Amino acid sequence: MALKRLYLPVVVLSARAWAGLPEAIAYLEEEVPKWKRDxxxxxxxxxxxxxxALFTAIRLNAGARRDPVEDTVQGLLxxxxxxxxxxxxxxxxxxxxxxxxxxxxxxxxMIRRVAEMLVKAQSADGHWQVEEEKVTGxxxxxxxxxxxxxxLEVVERAGMRESAGRARAWLQSRRVxxxxxxxxVLMAGVRRGDAIESLARQQLPNxxxxxxxxxxxxxVIALVRAGAEPxxxxxxxxxxxxxxxxxxxxxxxxxPGGDSYAQHISTTAWSVLALLEPGPLGTESSGSRx
Length: 290
Fold this sequence. Notes:
Blueprint: E1 12-13, H1 15-39, H2 44-59, H3 67-76, H4 86-101, H5 108-121, H6 144-157, H7 161-173, H8 179-187, H9 193-202, H10 213-226, H11 230-242, H12 261-276, E2 285-286
Antiparallel strand pairs: 1-2
């Protein structure tokens, strides 16, 4: 009997990215389980965004360990204990989906259950309003476009076509004046040339978007998924690596210049995801940290 060879995805990154990524992963491996240990509860920033970044690193064989997120998986499997907010359903739902993709959760019925929660929270026009924000979305609260993109992945995985169709229609018609709005549209796989043009137009000469790690990370992820502007992606990643500090990234806050642990962890998670997002970037090397 011929044996089938199992191929696992391996993230391909530049040598420069490999210099910063191991430190960032190790930092999240330390921080993600700390919240539950110290506060006796799960948090959207640590066990949502932070864990999602680690699950993604595990899936892509980027050197992340499983043990720092094993307890998070147990919390994600108990949606009845989640805070009854749309934000929690979106963040924990996205983390649960990342855990499944990493092979750390194999309960498809649980994905369906969380998707049903999301459908109940979906607005009539098709989008998810994760927070009543009066300013641009922040790393731990996303904004409507990015939040909708993340929720859409879960309902599509559960095969809920009607809900997914309404979300895609909303994203297709959404104005993309801000870089975060454009990024959310493209993250969802909605092909819009005006969204790509919006991101290209708003990238600063230093390679960032609005001089913020979260906005830059979101734009990088979006452009990679759209298969567009690889040089802009490289410049965005270079800016992120230049602004990494102590393993993590300074928190993006609204208004800027604030100090928030939650936003810091989510900002760091988004930055790691931007470095991990696979795509044809003409990068130099690949491998595993350990």
